[in-house]
Amino acid sequence: MSEPSSPAAESESHLSLFTLTMINVAAILAMHALPSLAEYGCALVFYLGAAALGFFIPAALISAELASGWEGEGGVYLWVTEAFGPKWGLVAIFMQWVENLPWFAMVLAFAASAFAYLFDPVLATNKWFVVAFIWFGLAISTLVNLRGLKFSAFLSTSGVLIGTIFPCLVIIALGAVYWLRGEPLALQFSVPAMLPDLENPQQLMLLAVMLVSFTGIEMSAVHVTEVKDAGKTYPRAIFISCGLIIILSMLAALSIALVIPADDVSLSAGVYQALAKFFAIFGMPMMAPIITFLVAYGAMVMVITWMIGPSKGIREAATEGYLPELWRKKNEFGIPVHVLALQAVVSGILSIAILFMPSVSSAFMLMNALAAQLYLIMYLLMFAAIIRLRYTHPHVKRSYQVPGGKVGIWLVAGIAILSSCFVFITGFIPTGSLRESVAGIVGYVGFLLVGCLVFTALPLWYFHRSGQRSTRHVQ
């Protein structure tokens, strides 16, 4: 069973609809993903629509039902455990937690590029600077989260407003003015250009990048016990978040594609390339560093937001005896101290891989690919769980249900499962400079295979080693 909440934790147990929505947007709307999306050019509209219909919206609908029916702490761990037992619940939450380790490094590499552009753009390609910044960012993010949910929720709200939504709106506005002024465009709008090039393996790989940029809608479910009237508030927050994320992502990525040719987009610094070019054209070069600083702040806050969610779920599994006892410890704010410290250390170690990659951009892609593969394993379990729970737990009251009865849940979850399997397979296709040599291809595929096998085997090994059974009441 979960340990009783401390007074401090109880006092901060009311998240509003607005705050919960901002936590969702802060966790998913990713400025660092915009350059990857911009690489599609006009085909972005097709791929974004495919990712939204095939994955993002189904994941949102499924998360809303699961969170409204099972409001206990633990999120995906609770849901998958109810469906398939604690072993697979442990695998699911471990995948959600461990995928953050390369992802933290990726997002902080993006933030490092932003700060580099404030002082010396050459630093953005300096691997040692990027790794040092990642370590610094991990330390700061961990310390901030140790102060509890109230402070990190404030940062999530402020970070998403001034560090993500505002810069997105600035880029969209600049792109619209640029287009209306008749400036030369780096892409041409036409029906053929909007269709996917399915013969291009690089575009298939980029589809995995796009899909993973839409992951995380279920993450805020671990806060469901801190939300008043969670059964109604949580689904509303999810649907509002979906609309904001899809619209802002599409318009901002298209704005970048207007001024930066697809072949010239830097995955780690494309946002700053676009900002610098926009403001130079409009005679306001002094604005680029200001917006760039806000973007860097938003990236840092995104890491802060993601550090606490999965760590609370992994602590729930530890509390039930399926992970080391040390992982159960929490401070007076209800924060799992040792889990936060461990993930910062492991993420820092993974970031060292950047030093051995051809460029910061290729390292950025590698970290993103590993995070995607690990996360998709969790999603496959979550999508399967919603189908099983409709049959095994029909009596559980859900304030929101995926419409259409059992046919509806098979359709929604089935589409999500097929999309996830397709992207998981294509995720092993290397792209960019990694495809230029046999060593690059073998290294890329090998890194992903070893990462997936090791991180999937670890929770299964520890579960059998523990020899314990769940103490949680099954509804």
UniProtKB/TrEMBL annotation:
The chain crosses the membrane at residues 15-34, 41-64, 76-94, 101-119, 125-146, 158-180, 204-225, 237-260, 280-308, 337-357, 363-387, 407-429, 441-463. InterPro entries: AA/rel_permease1, APC_superfamily. Keywords: Cell membrane, Membrane, Transmembrane, Transmembrane helix, Transport. One of its GO terms (molecular function) is transmembrane transporter activity. One of its GO terms (cellular component) is plasma membrane. Its main location: membrane. The keyword Repeat does not apply. The keyword Ligase does not apply. It is a multi-pass membrane protein. It is found in: Cell membrane. PANTHER family: AMINO ACID TRANSPORTER-RELATED, GLUTAMATE_GAMMA-AMINOBUTYRATE ANTIPORTER-RELATED. This is Putative glutamate/gamma-aminobutyrate antiporter. The lineage of its organism: Bacteria, Pseudomonadati, Pseudomonadota, Gammaproteobacteria, Oceanospirillales. The gene is gadC_2.
